[in-house]
Amino acid sequence: MKVEEIQTKKTNSLSQELSRLNLLREDAIRLYYYMVLTREFENSILKLYRQGKIIGGAYTGNGNEATSVGSSYALGKTDYLFPMHRDIGAHFVKGQTPYQLYLQHLARGSGFTRGRDGTGHYADTELRIYGNISHLAAMIPLANGVALALKNRKEDSVVLNYIGDGGCNVGDFHEALAMASVMKLPLILIIENNQFAYSTPLHKQYACENLSDRAIGYGIPGVTVDGTDILQVYAETRKAVDRARAGDGPSLIESVTMRMHGHSAHDDASYVPKEMYEIWNKRDPIRQFERKLFDWGILDEDENTKMFEEINHTLTTSAEDAVKEPYPHGSEVTDGVFAKK
Amino acid sequence: MPVQPYIEAISAALWEEMERDKEVFLLGEDIGVYGGAFKVTKGFLEKFGEERVIDTVLAEAAIIGAATGAAIVGMRPVAEMQFADFVTCGFNQLVNNTASIHYRWGLPVPMVVRLPSGGNIHGGPFHSRNPEAWFFHQPGLKLVAPSTPYDAKGLLKAAIRDPDPVLFFEYKYLYRRIKGEVPSEDYVVPIGKADVKRKGNDATIITYGPTVHVALDAAQDIAGSDEYDVEVLDLRSLMPFDKEAILQSVKRTNKVLILHEDTLTGGIGGEIAAFINENAFEYLDAPVRRLGACDTPVPYAPTLETEFLPGKDKVLKNLKELLEY
């Protein structure tokens, strides 16, 4: 879908829009809060990277906050989340703390992966978060496996997984959708179409009109949403979650947004035309929703300032605490290859 | 003790484990209605139903990935590759996802992938491979390769009950040709333990899978003609392999031939040879020898495949040179 074709829906009435989605005013505040938390957290990650405290790559989801927060907000406590590297917002919605995510990014021994892996590549079985490996599409078959277990155990939980505009060319995407569709697995797959796969633009990635068109080939619902509009993302994911929970099978959602930073912190993204940033900057998911909350009288300037302050205070102290934690001891290196030696 | 063919021992292990533990389920291509390309799971669908005997789409990455996903939430999937050759299509899942999960996440991955392997069945280049060495090199996977019905049943049960991912290499050539005693009561063959299939003092053939039988044949021949007494050590488990058993045998016989049906270069034999050289060099009376298949794709014509495989004549030639060293 071309950028100019995406129009943010104009809505006049708060109560109309929220009640249509079965959301309360508090939900609207929480959606906004998680987006702000996500962006501020990722800004702090970039800072830690520049300070040399993050030793590997630093990825952000700047521009993707409405997609990650809006979609995961449709999940319940017992649902499973398989996020990608630009979905830190989804980790927070699921209940993850900034402190744990800092430990992961800083490769500390007390983090979930005990320094074996970084960033969001961890599993938290209590919160039911299963992070990606770098071969992103490889997670879709795994998400299927969890969905299959849920179905066989007659549990009504669902699995939410994400892929990118590049990743949905990988065979695993197609194999997994083929399996999920015929087995009617409770899977929701969101394609985060953020205009670039590393440096490669969309016209070199696919020749169909919308990536959601790929759903047709698998006989499942496919829809394209404005990925900068959090309520639209929430609404469509909600439908897909309800459908999966009812036993009607998987859905594909293409959420169109823009990757506002480089692929990783090292990447200046000079291949991105400047005009694209100008266009997409006007559609910034956080400022878009902030305006709505102001217009609707749900949030005022003071409350907003206070929210930013509180978030940044939490982030600063969490990061400071995490930095104090030690790396794992080198002598542990061979521990844990197997569960049973 | 009842006598069973190798293939029936595999079926029996699956059947009994599914009866024992409701978390055990099967998935693969044509395993349900059709009962599997080799009929290993014949009758399973009728007994256990389609939720536990799943006919999947033809997509190996989806099959292995789904098994991995189900395993991390506590189920015990047994995935069938229709032929071991097709595991290449699920390679990324196994080496990047399945194998690394416990190290990275600390979560058990109690799954089994069954791999009907090996040549000698006129299968040609894509239905005859022995792919174990690729996975031997990947930390995080366990590999077993039984040669007898007893070991097949006991190792498959152990694999299903193990908390780690286990690749179960089973041999099409042995399916109906090899019969043996299999207890009807429950037992397991522990992963990581080798077995002396023939006692001897003059040399040891270290081997696994179908070449165990080639080695036994050759040892029998040489015992009759030259009165040499050759030991046959069946590794049974390739990862982990039984270092203790290897050392015990080598220190006693002082001469070693490592034999496998997989192609020679980069095969598991190289690692075993290095292990012996590093740990038992002083006990050796001859250089460690290796014999495997020729370094070619598996050929189709019987004349070519016979020449390709490490058959009895080649084993005898190697043994004689080793014994006379």
Question: Overview of this structure, please?
Answer:
The complex is a heterodimer of chains A (341) and B (325). Chain A has 341 residues and is of the alpha/beta class. Helices cover 43% and strands 10% of the residues of chain A. Chain A has one domain (31-325): Thiamin diphosphate (ThDP)-binding fold, Pyr/PP domains (Rossmann fold, 3-Layer(aba) Sandwich). The termini of chain A are far apart. The relative contact order of chain A is 0.17. Chain B is an alpha/beta fold and 325 residues long. Chain B has 2 domains: 3-181, Rossmann fold (3-Layer(aba) Sandwich), CATH 3.40.50; 195-323, Rossmann fold (3-Layer(aba) Sandwich). In chain B, the strands form 3 sheets. A 7-stranded mixed beta sheet of chain B has the order 3-2-4-5-7-6-12, sandwiched between helices. Chain B has a 5-stranded mixed beta sheet with strand order 9-11-10-13-14, with helices on both faces. Chain B starts with a strand and ends with a helix. The interface between A and B is large, with 41 and 45 residues.
Explain briefly what this protein structure is:
Chain A contains twelve helices and nine strands.
CATH fold annotation of chain A = Rossmann fold
Total number of β-strand segments of chain B?
14
C-alpha-based Rg of chain A, rounded: 20 Å
Number of alpha- plus pi-helical segments of chain B: 12
Q: Give the total of domains of chain A.
A: 1
Tally of distinct domains of chain B: 2
Fraction in beta strands of chain B: 15-25%
